[in-house]
Amino acid sequence: MQVKQIYGILNDVMKEVTGQRKTAEGEPDVFIVNEDLSNIVDMGTVVFRGDTWKDNYVKSLINRIGREVFVDRTYEGYAPNVLRDAWEYGSIMSKTRCKIFDAKANPSWSLEAGQTVNQFEFSPPDVTQKFYNSKVAWQIDCSFTEEQLKESFTSAAAMNRFISMIENRIQTSMTIYIDSLIMRTINNFMAEKINANNSVIDVLAGFNDTQVTPITAAAAVSNKEFYRYLAYRTDLDIERFRAPSANFNIDDEANVTFTPRDFAHFVLHSDFASGMKVYLQSDTYHENLVTLGDFETVPFWQSQGEDYNLQITSRIDVKLASDNTKIVDRNYIIGVLFDRDALGVLNDNRRVTTAYNANGEYWTNFYKVDTSYFNDLAENAIIYVLGNGIPNVDTEPMKPGEIVWGYRVNQLQSNVKVDNTSMKITGTLKYITEGALPPTWGNGNFLALEWLDIPADATSCKIGITNLVEILTDPDRNGTVKVSDTTAKLRVITETPRGTNTQEYDLSGLTLESPAAQAEEEPKSTTKKK
Q1: Which stretches does DSSP call E strand in 234-358?
Q2: Is 348 exposed, middle or buried (0-12, 13-18, 19+ CB in 10 A)?
Q3: d(CA 257, CA 174)
Q4: pLDDT band per the 50, 70, 90 thresholds, residue 521
Q5: Dihedral, 231, 232, 235, 239 alpha carbons, nearest 10
Q6: What is the mean predicted confidence (pLDDT) over 494-508?
Q7: pLDDT in tens, 77-128
Q8: What is the helix (H) or strand (E) element at residue 148, kind and residue range?
Q9: Per-residue pLDDT reduced to its tens digit, 24-54
Q10: Angle CA(485)–CA(487)–CA(488) in degrees, nearest 5?
Q11: What are phi and psi for residue 480, nearest 5 degrees?
Q12: Can you spell out the DSSP letters for 310-332?
């Protein structure tokens, strides 16, 4: 049933029937208006939205619903389990630790005649205490009717299934939101460690040190020997966690701590967890010798992107919770090993309140959530990365209608596509003899591109084939590149304090139109330079 709200029409009708209908000042009074009664009168509908609703016999009976399917599958979430403690009264969590004591000489073995041994020197412990007293709150609202819903169902059981489906989607929405907040808790922890350059292990560099021929980060995903090294390295670090150390945490007081093996929590990017199973464990006789032990997996840290490209799924780009003027933008993060007390969720408080609207005959449920999320950098943790972690710059073709150097982009190129995964550029470049480009670069074929998502800490980003041009100084971050040889590579070189990242794009998929082909085209109108 379609129900239309007609309160506006009824208000106008009331003015009409009581003689109050007026028009604008200076215009003659109008007491009758043309009314669209399609919003009021139901003339009866012969068929619903075309012939697909008719029966195949007499062509006038309405098809019945044979089966109703309500999408109510349960979503369990993907975020790691970092739920810690909960309490009903009070809001603050305090965390108290005592520093390791310094050893002193034992005077029992250096006694001399007449010597007084001081036993009254006061030696208090060095104790620090942290307080956590913040939470986030949000809610989902959903209204339910009863009388109106009865028109759409044949039984109470069917209507209950519908309401259960809605409830399921609410819970799914809440799980997705909570998963996202848990991942932000982990991401901030990793970003704080990366910013401090504390216990950030480049497993690719460590592996390449053992190899005659180094491999790239992209190749590591499918390299069996790399997974052997990864299993070795993480197992070694878990053992090192057991020993008291100040090397794996960030603390102003050089905190010495340790992590028992059953307190070590390991979260691994699923690309590498799957690689471990397929490339290593599947053909290993003593599987227990090469496994990573207990760990949880995540398909991405911050975003899944469009196609689960590892460049995106392994990346975080965050402002630090400790100092939001600092940004950490890093990709190829493959895992994090941390003490169970290093981060987590406290007081996950979920509840539902209900309000009934007697006038509207509906009730609204308010699904409320307030939760505390914490990081403690004084606990042990290690971040595992591949390479220097500088994200690639996304290279994209400019849109056909955009203007660059006085040309519309479709005057320079057609069907240009950039694949930032395979690093290939395809399409057709037209031969340019007029306008702003030939006087400087000569007649030829020009590729119009824009560069997106440049790392926040980049100090330089240059593009080109032979002569590279700085684009950080260009607020539009776009431009043209002359292509004379499709066997050459288009390079994008990004420099940051972490190092330099070089991208090379294959241009062999480009078609360069000749001057003859350009002459056959109709003359194009000239445009002014942007």
Answers
A1: 264-269, 296-298, 316-319, 327-330, 333-339, 343-357
A2: middle
A3: 36
A4: low
A5: -170
A6: 88
A7: 677 777 666 655 565 666 666 666 566 666 776 777 778 777 767 566 666 6
A8: helix 147-150
A9: 554 444 443 444 433 333 333 444 445 555 5
A10: 75
A11: -120, 150
A12: HHHHT-EEEE-SS-TT-EEEE--
Task: Give whole-number Cα distances, 219 to 203, 208, 226, 288, in Å.
Answer: 13, 12, 9, 25
**Given the structure tokens 């975020």, which residue do they identify?**
79
Contact criterion met (CB below 8 Å) for 348 and 83: yes
End-to-end Cα, the chain, rounded Å = 55
Any residues with CB less than 8 A from the CB of 459 and at least 6 apart, and which?
472, 495, 496, 497
The dihedral formed by the CA atoms of 460, 461, 465 and 466, expressed in degrees to the nearest 10: -10
Q: Which amino acid is at 147?
A: E
Q: Which residues of 504-524 are buried (b: 16+ CB within 10 A; e: fewer)?
A: ebbbeebebbeeeeeeeeeee
Q: Is 489 exposed, middle or buried (0-12, 13-18, 19+ CB in 10 A)?
A: middle
Give the whole-angstrom CA distance, residue 41 versus residue 99.
82
173's CB contacts (< 8 A; 6+ apart) are 140
Contact 462, 472 (CB under 8 A): no
Largest CA distance in the chain: 124
What is the rounded distance in angstroms from the CA atom of residue 364 to the CA atom of residue 354?
Answer: 6
Can you say how many angstroms the Cα of residue 282 is from the centroid of all Cα atoms in its chain?
Answer: 31
pLDDT at 174 over 60: yes
pLDDT 10s digits, 461-493: 999 998 899 999 888 889 899 999 999 999 999
DSSP 3: -
> Which of 488, 479, 471 is CA-nearest to residue 393?
471
Please tell me what DSSP assigns to residue 109: G
Could you please report the per-residue DSSP string of 156-216? Answer: HHHHHHHHHHHHHHHHHHHHHHHHHHHHHHHHHHHHHHHHHT-SEEEHHHHHHTT-SS---
Residue 218 · residue 357 · CB < 8 Å:
no
**Strands annotated E in 378-485:** 381-385, 394-397, 403-404, 407-408, 413-419, 424-429, 431-432, 444-452, 460-464, 469-470, 478-483
How many angstroms separate the CA atoms of 408 and 22, rounded?
A: 53
pLDDT of residue 250: 86
Residue 344: CA atoms inside 13 Å, Cβ hemisphere, count?
Answer: 18
Beta-bridge mates of residue 289: none
